Structures are given as C-alpha cells and as structure tokens.
Amino acid sequence: MSSSSVLFDAPGPRSKRLYAAVGVASVILLLLALWFVYSKLDEKGQLTAAKWKPFLTGVVWTEYIIPGLIGTLTAAAISVVFALTLGTLLGVGRLSATAWIRIPCGVVVEFFRAVPVLMMMLFSYALYGYYEWFPSDRLALAAVVTGLTLYNGSPNWSARVCTRCRRARTRPRSRSDSPPARPCAWCCCRKQSLRCCRPSSASWW
Amino acid sequence: MDVISEFFSEYDGLGAFRSTIYLTVLSALFALVIGTVVAVMRVSPIRVLQVIGSAYVNIVRNTPLTLVIVFCNLGLFLQLGINLANPDSPTSIDDNNFRLAILGLSVYHAAFVAEAIRSGVNTVPLGQAEAARAIGLPFLKTLRYVVLPQAFRGAIAPLGNVLIALTKNSTVASVIGVTEASAVMKVMMENRPDVIFVVFGIFALGFVILTLPIGVLFTSMSKRLAVKR
Fold this sequence. Notes:
The structure holds 2 protein chains of 2 kinds.
Chain A: H1 2-5, H2 13-43, H3 49-52, H4 58-93, H5 99-114, H6 117-131, H7 139-170, H8 173-176, H9 185-201
Helix pairs in contact in A: 4-7, 5-7, 6-7, 7-9
Chain B: H1 2-9, H2 13-43, H3 47-61, H4 65-79, H5 92-123, H6 126-134, H7 139-154, H8 156-169, H9 181-191, H10 196-224
C-alpha cells in the first residue's frame, strides 16, 4: 500500500466529497447488479427451499461432494510428487554440460510449456484407454495426474530449479564455484535451490 | 498420412484453430481493458473501489477456469437470461456459447492482467509519481500521463505470460460446446484411436506454433521497450 499512496495527495475538502460520491455510486451500482441477479433467480424459482434442500441430505455429500473433493486432492497430491521429481530432473538436466542431455531437456520443457494441460489430459486418457494400461476405474485419475505432472512439473518446477541453481552457483562462491563446478552442480545446488523454491512452489499446487 | 488429410478435409482442423485464435485475441483485448480498470481501482484513493478490486482479483483467481466458463453458460445464459447473440439467427446457440466463452476467459484472465499491471506500477520509481503530484496532476492524470505508460512497459513480460496462458486456456471453452482445437482433437481421437499419437502431435504442433512466437515476441519486446533507468 505504501507504493500506491504515493500516487495521490492527501485529499482536501473537494476531493473528499468527490471520493465519497464515487464510493457511494459504486456501492449503489454493485447493489443494483446483485439485486438484478437476485430478482432473476427468484423469478426462475432458484431460491426456493426445495432447490437447496439436497445440500442438507447426507447422500449428496457422501456420494457427490466429498468423493469429488477427495478426487481433486488425490490427483493434486500424486501429481505434486511426480511433478517435483520430473521438474527437478529436467531442471538440472537443462544445466548439464553435456549437450545430449541439455538440449533434449530443453525441448521437452518448451514443448510442455506450449501445449494446453487439457489436451495432455485428453491425450493420456485416450492413450491409456486404448492400450488398457490402467483399470477402467482408475483411467480418469491416471490421465489427470499425467496431465498435471507434465504441465506443472516440466515447465514450472524445472524453470524454478533452473534459475535457483544458476543463482546458487553464482552467489555463494565457495560452495559451487570450486574447479569441478559443473559435475557437482547437482549435489551442491540441489539442497539450496529446493529450499529457495519452497515458497514459490506453494502457489501453483 | 491419411490422418493429416482428414485433419484438413473431414474435421476442419484449421477452422478449429481459427476459433482458438479468435477466442484468444478477443479475450485478450477484453481482459486487457477489464484488467487495467481493476488495477486502477486497486491503486485508487477510494476505499470502496480498492476493496471491490481486490475482492474481484482474489475471488476470480481462486476459482477454476472451468467453473467460470460453465457458470457463464448455466448461470448467465440459462438462469439470468443473458443472451449475447441474435436469437433469430440459425447459429444463435453456437454464437452465444462462443461469446459467453470469450466473456468467461476475459473475466478470468483480467484478474491476472490486473496483477501484472500492478506489478508494473511497482516498477515505476517513486520519484515519478511524486514529480507528477508536484506539478499538480490529479490521481487519474498522474496515472494516465506518468505512471501507467511506464507500468505497461514494465509489465510486458508478465502480460506475455498471461497471453500464453490464455492461448492454452482457451481450450477450456470446449466444456460449453465451442468447437475449438481441443474439442476437435477429442473427436478425432475417439474416431481414430489407432493413430492418437499422430493426432496429438498435429494439435500439439499447432499450439507450439501459436505460443512459441508469442513468448519470443514478448521477451524481445520487454527488453526493447523497458524504460532505461
């Protein structure tokens, strides 16, 4: 907020009136919009008790909502583990001194950065369904996890590992700029970079 | 190889990518407008607008895009009766879903645009805004002539990331029946499960062709247009 308060002076009497007027006007507009939504819903009978009663019955929760949430959390938890593994490998691979490792890792990352996650899910669903690699009740979960892993692990996580490793390599000179810097990048940077990555990684899962 | 000719003739793959591009470009324009307004609201001196702006960003950003787009169809169209297409035209339902998808995509990505622009505002040195106030510019003129031009130039890289995300997220429009690239890919995969790798490859290549140039362009623009300080 300190950066925004520099954009305007402390209001004088005229500005205060103006601010109050604009504030009241926007509240009125907002209330009008909410009232419009309410009246339309009321007109369609969406607000009658019968439409909301299902949420009070146990079956809706035990059969639909809770299994749905569990499914979401399961998919998220599994793909976080896979994505961290894949991303760390690719991120470190992109820093390799060997072009045979560095370039394929870069291509893989750029590819999965460009392709929508929904398409990867659809593709893996069709793939697993056709070759029957998974039992049919696990098919959707496997496809979702594959999509999320490729999408989050490869570009997001590996990019973070990559930048952190580069930074770690330049900053504490004594630890990783010793003569065999490149071969030991993995062991030196791993701990530091993962520690640095932790807060930023929380936002995308 | 017959898959590739089927892609062009039978499934109108180019048409699918054309609607992906339309979705992306139109949503990007609307998202930029809405996002700029929201960002201005968040830095404005009026408390109510600040609250509305930050509530918008926090609510929309934490809602899955699929939910936003499904709500556009089930909520806005079916319940609130908001019809964005001419109801008499024969393609009314398709047009309406297409426009509702654009609305949903714009509203969703506007939150990210607003955050990008706000981060751009933070790159403008304090002295600039102080100087603008010192010569007597009121809040909106300070933004219009001094802060926002520099903020946009500082926000090009994050805005490019939002545009790439928007290009890919436009596939979610398929959930309300818009025939864009991923919907056509799904149909092709269902009809020809023997060649899913080729089908996926074609569509993935399409997205690589769409998104890679955006990334390259915005990276070079963010370097070229950055305010030299």
